Amino acid sequence: MKDNLKIVIVVLIVIIISSFVFYKKPAPVSEPVVTQENSIKGCYVATLAKDVYTINILSQEGETFKGTLRFKNFEKDSSSGTYEGTYKDGILLGDYSFDSEGMHSVMQVIFKKTPEGFVRGFGNMNSDGTRFSDLNNITYDTKYTFKNSSCASL
Asked: Which residues touch 9 (CB under 8 Å, ≥6 apart)?
């Protein structure tokens, strides 16, 4: 009986020691890694008649991005400024901070990633016209397709 007890104790000790030796810590949860395959950095251009619209993504870290947005209209007021926000699940959503007609404004702008580049989304805005009232009710208009391009020529 004592021999059986000694065997059980030795087996338990071996199990405990081996569990410490082979234990692996779970990997820490971190920001998504931006690789060349999922990077959105670059310039994207949409041309509608004589109007030229440009998104230039300058930096991307995880789900956040920073860049510029420019709406160069042929015979209307144009605007340009910074565009910063998040890129998650193929949706580029950010705040466009710009000057136009002598005033500074900020408004939310949304795009959806496509194989060609990005398509601009439109939807109802809140009462002051700065944010979408319902992000689940956005319509993407393919005539506003921003294709990957070079900003050097603009």
From this structure: none
